[in-house]
Each structure stands twice: as C-alpha cells, then as structure tokens.
Write a structure and sequence with these properties.
The protein has helices spanning 2-35, 42-68, 77-103, 107-132. It is mainly α. The chain has four helices and no strands. The two termini are 32 Å apart.
C-alpha cells in the first residue's frame, strides 16, 4: 500500500507542472484574445479544455493522496485543510469559468470570461504550489 501512496504522491507532485504549463498557456491565450479582439477558434477550446482536464486529474490525485495518507489526522494545518481547501476553490473557479465560457455567444465574451476566471484560478494555484513548496 505504501508503494501505491508514494506513486500517487509522486504523480500529484509531477502533474502540477503540467497544470501550471496548461494554466499559463490558457491564460495567455485568453488575454491575447480579449485584448486583441480575436475570434474564438477550435484551438482555444482545446487548450482551455486540456487545462480543465489537467486540473481535474490533479484534484483527483490530490484527493486520493489526502485520503490514503489520512491527512486530516496530522497536526499540520497546511496539508490537513488549507492546501486541499485552496485547491478545491481553484478547481471551482476554473470549472465555473469553463461553464460560463462554453455558453457565451460572442468571442469577446468567451475570452473575457476565460481571462478573468482562469487568471483567478491560476493566481491562487501559484499561491497553493508555493505554499506546499515551503516558500511562504
């Protein structure tokens, strides 16, 4: 069982970099499209969808690590509640943005919604990663 937990923890730790790369690409595309008055293309849908999927997988891995390691029983506030709660809030922001973006009619609205919600999620994602790395 320890090998499975270690594998999940390593996958969770490594996958965060994929999530950060996807977040940076997605946020960049959203801001460029919003301020550049671009038209929404299939590429934007695919990149933002991959960001959401990568974030979904990261949350699932994190929840599994949290459950298997029984993190709620440790005395460390960061790994017990603060990091998981922040990551679930990030997931909620990104999912809400994705939901609203999908139903927007105009390209400018899609880019605006994506830029706002994905930037918010990415900002807190960076804070959460830096916290868990011990930066602050």
């Amino acid at each position: 069982m320890d090998g499975i937990v270690a594998g999940l923890q390593n996958a969770h730790a490594l996958w965060r970099y994929m999530v950060l790369i996807c977040a940076a690409l997605t946020v960049g595309m959203m801001w460029r499209g919003w301020y550049g008055n671009k038209s929404w293309q299939t590429l934007e849908t695919r990149v933002s969808s991959f960001f959401i999927t990568a974030l979904d997988l990261e949350v699932v891995l994190g929840v599994l690590v949290w459950l298997f390691k029984q993190q709620w029983t440790t005395g460390d506030l960061l790994s017990t509640w603060r990091h998981p709660a922040l990551m679930l809030a990030i997931w909620f922001f990104a999912r809400l943005g994705w939901y609203r973006l999908r139903y927007a009619k105009e390209s400018r609205d899609k880019f605006r919604i994506g830029a706002i919600w994905f930037t918010l999620a990415t900002f807190f994602l960076i804070i959460g990663v830096l916290q868990i790395m011990g930066v602050f």
